[in-house]
Amino acid sequence: MTESAIAVIGCGNIGSRVLQALARLDRPATIHAIDPVPTALARARERVAELGSVARARIVYGDRIRSLPDTIDLALVATCADTRRATVEALLERARVRHLVLEKFLFQRADDYAAVGERLAASSARCWVNLVRRAWPGYQALKRQLAGDRRLEMQALGPDFRLASNAIHYIDIYAYLTGVHVSDYDGSGIDREPMASRRAEFRELSGILRGAGAEGRRVTLASHRTSKLPFVIQFFTPELHWIVREVERKAWCASAETGWAWREADFEGLDVSAMTEAYGEILERGTSVLPTLEESAKDHLNLLAVYNRHWFGADGARAACPIT
């Protein structure tokens, strides 16, 4: 089997977990872990060391994209949103990239989506977005049970879950389950007072964000600053009701077919560090359960428009959204 050349660009919290997943690949591989920040590279080394003998790949650490080889079979870009476009462009200037995975939230400016899409089309690189819940066996089981039912409604609510950064995960799951992209957003329930992000240069949101799916089916995301309730997601059609608690990896299911009797079930999820099989599929077959950049850009741009209206008003469509 030919050795794969892999790059992880950005070795912070998410990037170092991606590195753990890739280090477990059951195939010959050299992984180039790139980050200009020494503490991030140190974290990456520590997390690979945690794997012990499970880590099979050879890891090469570096602080510059120009240290990469000329051809990359798979690159994962896990930098912040404010630098992601520049990082992707620098990567494509340096190397021929066959497959690319980008971390969310993709980009801060609406113009970046078309610019990066055109650049990728010219390079022939195939690109996906790292919205990992699509790979969770729990959501895959729910998708099979729904069988494409577009009447699905969804609610996700609980204590502060960093609405601006993480809404895309749940909007994407709705698209995955139904084939419908949420539209017609109502941001009037978002709290006016912004929240500090984990990084000083970014901001977060709390409050209620509403949207609509097919035929006006409701999607509601509610992130409450002072709530002590557990985070819960509900999915329901006229014939089906699921309650999911992701942290506990549990679900409760009821349906008209069973007389609405509740059944408790395990709800299997995957940490980013356990995405080895999903990333291996990209290398082996050039396919992925993850959404393509083209597909995910629709949802990102819709959310970006809501955020910018909230922060900058009607004239803020082209502003840089302060999201990480």
Give a structural overview.
The chain is an alpha/beta fold. It folds into two domains: 4-131 and 274-291, NAD(P)-binding Rossmann-like Domain (Rossmann fold, 3-Layer(aba) Sandwich), CATH 3.40.50.720; 137-269, Dihydrodipicolinate Reductase, domain 2 (2-Layer Sandwich), CATH 3.30.360. It contains eight helices and 16 strands. The strands form three sheets. It has an eight-stranded mixed beta sheet, with helices on one face. A six-stranded parallel beta sheet has the order 3-2-1-4-5-6, with helices on both faces. The chain has a two-stranded antiparallel ribbon with strand order 9-10. Helix 1 (13-23) runs parallel beside helix 2, helix 5 (137-146) packs across helix 6 and helix 6 (163-178) runs antiparallel to helix 8. It is globular.
Topology overview:
Elements (H helix, E strand, L loop, with lengths): L3 E6 L3 H11 L5 E6 L3 H14 L6 E5 L8 E7 L3 H14 L1 E7 L7 H14 L2 E4 L7 H10 L6 E7 L3 H16 L4 E8 L4 E2 L6 E2 L2 E6 L5 E7 L7 E6 L2 E6 L4 E6 L7 E4 L9 H10 L7 H20 L12
Parallel strand pairs: 1-2, 1-4, 2-3, 4-5, 5-6, 7-12
Antiparallel strand pairs: 7-13, 8-11, 9-10, 11-12, 13-14, 14-15, 15-16
Helix pairs in contact: 1-2, 1-7, 3-4, 5-6, 6-8
